[in-house]
Structures are given as C-alpha cells and as structure tokens.
Design goal:
With 506 residues, the protein is an alpha+beta fold. 43% of the residues lie in helices and 18% in strands. It has 18 helices and 17 strands. The chain is elongated and about 95 Å long. It starts with a strand and ends in a 6-residue tail after the last strand.
C-alpha cells in the first residue's frame, strides 16, 4: 500500500471545509470520498491493487445553495504522469484524451516535449493507413485540448493547427482522392483551408499562424515548390523557437526553391589507400559510405566482414575529418580488422575496398552523413561501376550482391525507397536516403552533381538533419526515380534485409 497527504489549504489556500474525491481511472470507480475540515489535512492510504498512475482526485467546496461544486474543472492525477508515460502507446484513444487533464501541472518544457511528439505520432498514425475512424479520433483529441491553455502556449497552438489542417486533408483524400487530383483542385483546397481554419481569432497567434503555414506548405509541396518554399520561409521567420522539432524545422530549413551550383566547401583526397581492385570484372557495384571516426569505430566491423563475402562489390569509405592522424587511424584499423578476420576465416584478405579522406571547413555534424553524396559524385566521375549509397549504421542480412548486380536490367537510372500515398505531404520524410542506387551513366552523373549542389547549400543551415531526404526529394522532381524495393522488372525476387543496428548492443 502507499500513502498520500491532501492539504487543500496549503495547496490552493482553500479556507473552508473541502470534499475530497479520489477516483480510479482503470476501474471507473470512486475509492475515497471524505470531508476535510477547514485548514486541515488528511492522509489517504491506498491499497496495492490500484495502479498509482491511474489515480485522480478533485476537491469540491460548498456553494451558496449548500451543494458541493468542483473547485477545479476536472480531475487531477494524484501522482503526476510525465510526458513519456503519456506518449507510451499513444494513439488518440479515450485514454489519451483523458491525459490532457494533466496539462495544467506540466512545465513549459514538458508541454513542448509532449506536443512535438504528438505531432510526430499523428503523421505516422494518420498518413500510413488513413481511415475515417482515425480522422474522428484525431478530431476528438483536438477538441479536448482546453482553449485557454492552447492559446497561451505557442507550441500547443502550432501543433494543434498543423494537425487540424492535415487531418482535414486526410479526410478530403479519403472522400475524393484529392492528392491525385488536378493542380487547380489542390489550389482550391489550399484556399478553402485558409478561409476555414485561419479565422480572425487565430490570425494574431504566432502558434496558430505558423501551424497553418507549415500545413499549407506541405500541400503546395506536391505541385508547386515555389509557393511551398514561401510558406515554409514565412513560418520560420515568425518563430522557429517553438517549431524546432525533427519533423518541422529541419525539413523546412533545408527546403529550397531552386539549387545553386558551385557550392563546393570540401575536398576529397584520393591517395590510393585501397586494396588491389581488379576493374576488369564484367560488372561490379561501388558501395559508398561517409562517416566520422566515432561512427566508423562503431559500425565498420559489420562491413569488414561483408567485404569477405561480396567479391563483386567495392567498399568505398569516405572518412570525414580534418585530422590526418584520424584518417590514417581508420585506414590502418580497417586493414588490421581484415587481417584478423582472414586468420579466423582461413581465407585471403579481400582487396575490394577504397578509402578517401574528405576534408571540409564545415563543422555541421550533418556533413558526416551527407558527405556520401560528395563521394558518390567523385566515384561516378572517376571510376567504373554503378553506385550504391548506404548508411554505415546498417546490418546486412541476405544476399546483397545478387540484389545489386541485377539492377542493370532495370529501366530507371536511380532507385531509392519512396514512401507511398499521403506521405508525399512531408517533403523531408517521403524520400528515404539511406539506400540509393545510381547507374554510372550520364543521367546518373547529373543526379550526383545535383545532390552535391543541394547538399552544399543545406550544410550552411543550423538545422539540417533532414538535408539528405530533402535533397533526394528535390532531385526526384528533376529525374525519374524508381523504387529500390521493386527494382522495376528485375528478375530477382529475394531481397536482402537492411536493418538498423541497435547502438546499445555495440
């Protein structure tokens, strides 16, 4: 059992006698109902059969007619739920609506954390498998947010407006397939949203207005990059400090109307730090990575092992550092790993690998991941073989070699995973950049050059973690992109699994 002291005078300066009601949310029953005398307190003993996180309470005081009335409008949790507990299995159900009652007891930081994550959850909940039932659930949740709290917190009002509009778009698409409609109908939808949602009571609120601008920018991103860019830039100019989450500010900051050339702020030093690669094979593919020394240490053993089994793949490692010592530490460590594995496996050391030293004046951490586009452009200009860009923090399970060597039989020059359906509404999330296959031909070279120029612009931004996905989304508007998980009409039906490594296991 556990104990809890209730002192209405100390807590709320209530001088008269008070009625205390303790309520169990799980069983929907009152487990305590007692009177606390004026300026007194009571200690309640609660049995272990109850879950602390389900217990709520409220105080009532006597009105002029001698009837008990609520001192505050809703039950409060006895043991305050933290945002992480509320977000656990959050899916816009009644339990999630009831948890909104905790808002008044949260700090500003807790509210920011809660609603920015609810925004993320909404997009995964509503866009992947949309339904009318989900639309209704989301609307019910939004209606439960107290208006006074929503208006006083820009983060809540921003997330509320963005979710409200995007949920309306989901419903419109369910009714009449709006996303496959003509441009004129999409423009009408955007105009309708402004008159329907951005009413006079909302226009003066920065939170509501930025939420509106982001949502409408998402719609324009499907058919009008110029207007989408304008909406995003206006949202950022009004208040990036309360829209600074992974879903919003990073994609907005590196979403550009057009791409400038000659943004080179790096150099690739190619000094023949490699095995003895034979390029007279009938066909081979260059796997392309970029990483800093920290991620290299964590994830390269997996790829060193793969190096032994995939003879027709060339492993190209771009080490991003301005330290010559760090670069050669990576090169020599990789050779030592191969040497040890060759003894263990009782086979010769593989020679199908290359190392490249990537130096840059940019200190943005996004460079470590996006430099793989720089390396891909270097490889496609200087070496034979197609390019397969991959994140270094992946595990390969399956026959990656057969998977990649069947690509030349396909009709597209570039393949990458692309999210389907309503996920097109999220420019920074629709085109996944972890695995991209690029043919080594004129179109492939142009594609790599485009990505290099886009990345060069984006690395200048403070918030740029979604830069690679924004770059490939923009490139898809200029080049025909195939889906890497289907590979067009290629004969191979068994695909390898590319799975994220769990860092806590390293």
């Amino acid at each position: 059992m556990f104990r809890k002291i209730f002192n209405p005078y100390e807590e709320y300066k209530i001088k008269e006698k008070v009625r205390l009601i303790v309520y169990d949310e799980r069983t929907k029953t009152r487990i305590k109902d007692e009177i606390i005398d004026s300026k007194k307190y009571t200690e309640v003993v609660i049995e272990d059969i109850y879950d602390k996180s389900d217990l709520k309470y409220k105080y009532q005081v006597m009105d002029i007619n001698g009837k008990w009335k609520d001192f505050f409008s809703r039950y409060n949790y006895i043991f305050k739920k933290n945002p992480k507990e509320i977000l656990k299995k959050f899916n816009f159900e009644n339990k999630d609506i009831e948890n909104i009652g905790s808002l008044e007891s949260f700090t500003d930081n807790e509210i920011n954390y809660l609603f920015k994550n609810i925004l993320l959850i909404f997009y995964n909940f509503s866009l992947i498998k949309p339904s009318y039932d989900k639309v209704l659930k989301v609307n019910s949740f939004l209606e439960s947010i107290p208006y006074d709290i929503m208006c006083s917190k820009n983060v809540i009002s921003h997330c509320y407006m963005q979710i409200k509009i995007m949920n309306y778009v989901v419903e419109a698409d369910l009714e009449r397939k709006i996303l496959s409609a003509k441009k004129s109908e999409l423009i009408r939808l955007s105009d309708c949203i402004e008159s329907k949602f951005l009413t006079s009571e909302y226009k003066e609120s920065l939170g509501f207005r930025t939420g509106y601008l982001v949502a409408v920018g998402n719609i324009y991103s499907i058919f009008d990059r110029k207007n989408s860019y304008k909406k995003y830039q206006e949202a950022l100019s009004l208040g990036s400090e309360y829209i600074d989450n992974f879903l919003t500010i990073d994609p907005l900051s590196t979403y550009y109307e057009s791409v400038n050339e000659n943004n080179q702020s790096y150099s690739i030093i190619d000094k023949n730090h490699r095995g003895k690669i034979s390029e007279c094979n009938e066909y081979f593919v260059n796997i392309c990575f970029s990483t800093d020394i920290k991620y290299f240490k964590m994830f390269v053993p997996n790829w060193a092992q793969a190096n032994f089994f995939y003879k027709s793949l060339v492993f190209n490692f771009g080490i991003v550092t301005n330290s010559e010592e760090e670069y050669f530490h990576c090169v020599n460590s990789y050779k030592n790993i191969l040497s040890s594995l060759s003894v263990l496996l009782e086979t010769d050391e593989p020679k199908n690998y290359r190392f490249f030293w990537i130096k840059s004046s940019i200190t943005n951490k996004t460079l470590y991941a996006c430099a793989r586009f720089y390396l891909a452009y270097h490889l496609i200009e200087k070496y034979n073989g197609d390019i397969f860009i991959s994140d270094i923090d992946q595990l390969v399970i399956g026959d990656l070699e057969n998977y990649l060597l069947n690509a030349p039989s396909c009709k597209f020059n570039v393949y990458q995973p692309i999210m389907k359906g309503l996920y097109k509404l999220l420019p920074g999330r629709s085109h996944l950049a972890g695995n991209i296959y690029i043919r080594n031909n004129f179109e492939g070279q142009r594609y790599c050059e485009f990505l290099t120029n886009y990345v060069g612009m984006g690395l200048q931004e403070k918030f740029s973690w979604i830069l690679d996905q924004n770059a490939t989304r923009c490139a898809s508007e200029h080049f025909e992109i195939g889906d890497i998980f289907s590979f067009g009409d290629r004969p191979l039906k068994q695909y390898p699994n590319l799975k994220r490594a769990l860092r806590k296991q390293i």
